[in-house]
TrEMBL record:
Protein's recorded name: RNase H type-1 domain-containing protein
The species this protein was found in: Gossypium schwendimanii (Cotton)
Amino acid sequence: NPVLPRKTENKAWKKPHQGTIKINFDASVHGKLAYYGLVARDADGFVLGGRMGYVNKEMKVEWAELMAMEFRAVKKLENSGSGV
């Protein structure tokens, strides 16, 4: 029934535990361009860094979000000095 009110959800950012870094990912797809981004915050909500990018390839938004997560994981390994 179109007269019924929509159920609303509170999707506010939630702080991680003290000593933990939380990384949020998001993506958007427009035609053949997929844009993705991420932001890292500490337990106080302080932004530690972020990245964004795009790919000139048609894909679903879930794949673009996965690409953002993969990008962050690769950068983490590169910066860890583990040689992986």
